[in-house]
Specification:
- The complex is a heterodimer of chains A (301) and B (297).
- In chain A, α12 runs antiparallel to α13 (271-300).
- Chain A contains 13 helices and no strands.
- Chain A is mainly α and 301 residues long.
- Chain B has one domain: MetI-like (MetI-like fold, Orthogonal Bundle).
- Chain B contains 15 helices and no strands.
- Chain B has helices at 2-16, 18-21, 25-56, 78-86, 89-120, 126-135, 145-154, 161-169, 172-183, 187-195, 200-211, 213-229, 232-237, 246-256, 261-296.
- In chain B, α5 crosses α9 (172-183).
- The radius of gyration of chain B is 26 Å and the shape is globular.
- Chain B starts with a helix and ends with a helix.
- The chains are: A mainly alpha (301), B mainly alpha (297).
- At the A-B interface, α1, α3, α4, α5 and α6 of A face α3, α5, α6, α7 and α8 of B.
Chain lengths: 301, 297
């Protein structure tokens, strides 16, 4: 009996000691993480139900901000444009990243250089990049339209100056910038597929396309899932790219949710309303991620 | 005699050559096609950079010409002298350097410290806490930047460099990256150290940290580059001109001198250059860092 309680006491002391040690390791980071991420997220759900303005004066207004949103045409435009950007950006980046990864996974000379080149746009300053792309896109004298005219397109698009073509232009830059990053994830995923599977498929007489469909794609499923999740959130929250490339224009043709929040909050000082829109963005990201996880689970089951 | 010995290695390589030659023709065609696509892709990826550098060496009138001049008529190095006089480049670079170094140090320190707690010490509530960290992947910063700004203003930190330091230094990313790496270090090693009487802090400092130098390098480089390139944080928090970072400064320069293409492109090259150098030297660590967190995080 005495040894049993002694053991238990010793065990309790060990748990206590580990808890203290664990928390002291985590605490320095956790304090910053809590103060700058967790607390703001909680505060968000309060501010969104007030009319908080620049003077910090706030009255509880219930659902007023959300009702206002329902009738705010700019909000719906921003929501629509966010969806438009995502619908183009997600599949295009996915395809480009996978294509590049398959290409670089083969034993060609100079593959290392290409991998570096592909990743470079992702780590360069977005201010410089968007400026360069804006010049490249300029309708009259830009190199892109110069090239298009040279290959016989007489009336090339106005890109960032045209309401119809501004979003495709943003998507082009977005795909160009992001594909190197996701390519790296795909490359790492490809390394995990055992070479024997390909040999076995070859012996069974499978051609290149069949090997891709029946060996590569299933083998890449966890990577594809991860890339899709990251890419979706990345598309839904797109902000600095658009702010710098088109500033939401021309008109409201590229206005997205993040920028709408920024305008309402930091330019018009309507913190309450901007927070309500933030909750919508938060909710969409959260819901889409949750759905993706559920679908993935069901497919794996 | 000499010639035969010299020619022997050449003969050896020739012997090795028939290997690929014996391949079926479709293999060679596919190979050539692969190279073709690869070269095209690399050109598409790098042309904007090439154009940026070349245009920064042109006179302003030469930037837009039809047809495009791929090489400037004469290199105009003047832009690289003028920019220092016409902008506060020195201040911007100093601020950005300071921020990047402090943020990187804090992120590596607190990130690796917390990662040890998550990876190697068992205690109740640990996994739940880690879930809170993981959950923030699905929560974009854009959705809580407003309340974060309100809080930061309440404690008088907006429009100070501290705001950016706090903003960047405690990300969940560093914790993931280091935790992934620590989990690959066998527990037996730590058990043995515990039995030998080393304290948890001793294990972290004497065993984990030295063993995780590659991960520390990955995290440092990625954090440094992220802080260097951040535009949104400084845009929202820094109002005073003397606090501007390189990204913010470059942006104000663009709006101020919007027709001086060549000069602005010079500024762009200068803002990218340090990152390009860091990337070229440490690319192995960049790639490792991305793949370890991306795949398992």
């Amino acid at each position: 009996m005495t040894t049993l309680t002694g053991d238990r006491r010793r065990h309790a002391r060990l748990v206590w000691r580990n808890t203290v040690a664990g928390w002291t390791f985590i605490l320095p980071n956790f304090l910053g993480f809590a103060a700058l991420t967790l607390v703001p997220v909680l505060v968000l759900f309060y501010v969104a139900f007030t009319n908080w303005n620049v003077f910090g004066k706030a009255d509880w207004t219930g659902l007023a901000n959300f009702r206002r949103m329902l009738h705010d045409a700019s909000f719906w435009t921003a929501l629509q444009n966010t969806a438009y950007y995502s619908v183009l950006h997600i599949p295009l980046t996915l395809a480009a990243a996978l294509g590049l990864a398959l290409l670089l996974n083969r034993k060609l000379r100079g593959v290392g250089f290409f991998r570096t080149a592909a990743f470079f746009p992702y780590i360069t300053s977005i201010v410089a990049l968007t400026y360069v792309w804006n010049l490249l896109f300029s309708p009259e004298y830009g190199p892109i339209n110069g090239f298009l005219r040279a290959i016989g397109i007489d009336d090339p698009p106005g890109w960032t100056t045209s309401a119809t073509w501004s979003m495709p232009a943003v998507v082009v830059v977005g795909v160009w910038r992001d594909m190197g990053y996701y390519m790296l994830l795909f490359l790492a995923g490809l390394q995990t597929i055992p070479a024997q599977l390909y040999e076995a498929a070859k012996m069974d007489g499978a051609n290149a396309w069949q090997r891709f469909r029946n060996v590569t794609l299933p083998g890449l499923r966890p990577t594809t899932f991860l890339v899709t999740v990251l890419l979706t959130i990345g598309s839904l929250k797109v902000f600095d790219l658009i702010l710098l490339l088109t500033n939401g224009g021309p008109g409201q043709s590229t206005l997205v949710l993040s920028q709408f929040i920024y305008q309402k909050g930091f330019m018009e000082n309507q913190f309450g309303y901007a927070s309500a829109v933030s909750i919508v963005l938060f909710g969409i990201c959260f819901a889409v991620t949750a759905i993706q996880f559920l679908l993935n689970k069901r497919r794996n089951a | 005699m000499d010639t035969t010995t010299v020619s022997r290695p050449a003969g050896a390589t020739e012997l090795a050559l028939p290997g690929p030659r014996r391949r079926p023709r479709t293999g060679r065609v596919a190979r050539a096609l692969g190279y073709l696509v690869l070269v095209a892709a690399a050109a598409a990826l790098l042309l904007p950079f090439y154009w940026m550098v070349m245009s920064s060496l042109k006179t302003n009138n030469e930037v837009f010409t039809i047809p495009i001049k791929w090489v400037p008529e004469s290199m105009v190095w003047n832009n690289y002298l003028d920019i220092w006089q016409r902008s506060d480049m020195t201040t911007w670079l100093r601020n950005t350097m300071l921020l990047s170094v402090v943020v990187t140090a804090l992120q590596v320190l607190t990130g690796s410290f917390a990662a040890y707690g998550f990876a190697k010490i068992r205690f109740p509530g640990r996994d739940l806490l880690f879930l809170a960290y993981i959950g923030t992947i699905a929560v974009p910063w854009q959705s809580y930047m407003i309340p974060q700004f309100i809080l930061m203003s309440k404690v008088q930190l907006s429009d100070t460099l501290w705001s950016i330091i706090l903003l960047q230094a405690f990300g969940a990313f560093g914790v993931f990256l280091m935790k992934q790496y620590y989990e690959s270090i066998p527990d037996e090693l730590i058990e043995a150290a515990r039995i030998d009487g080393l304290s948890e802090y001793g294990i972290y400092r004497r065993i984990m940290l030295p063993l995780s130098i590659p991960a520390v390098a990955s995290l440092s480089l990625l954090t440094f580059v992220t802080t260097w390139n951040d535009y949104l944080g400084p845009l929202i928090y820094l109002r005073s001109p003397e606090l501007r970072t390189i990204q913010l400064g470059l942006r104000t320069f663009i709006t101020q001198y919007n027709a001086e293409y060549a000069l602005i492109l010079t500024g762009s090259v200068l803002s990218v250059l340090p990152i390009a150098v860091i990337f070229l030297f440490g690319q192995r660590y960049f790639l490792q860092g991305i793949t370890t967190t991306g795949l398992k995080g």
